[in-house]
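Notebook entry, structure prediction.
Reason for the run: the old model in the group folder had no record of what sequence produced it. Starting over properly, with the input documented here first.
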Amino acid sequence: MRKREAQALSEILGDSLKNLQIDGKINETRVKAAWPEMVGPILASHTQSTYVSRKILYVRIDTPIIRNELQLMRQSLLERLNKAAGAETIKDIVFR
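New structure, fully documented this time:
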């Protein structure tokens, strides 16, 4: 038997998740979990639901004023949410 190079557990798990094709879903979960932290407690309290479909984050907002505020923050939110996920997980945000 040949000795293999030692690998970090995180590398082994990362490779396994990619092979199982569930790393994308884990990153989507990270994005949804990071949402309240990224927008803050006041804006998050006006958010009713979030979900990701085809790399688009859908967010239901209860007031038009909050929707406009989040529209202005869209690009910054995209960058920060993807950074929190550790990969380019979302490409756009739709506010409803």
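Summary: The chain has one domain: 27-95.
The old model has been moved to the deprecated folder.
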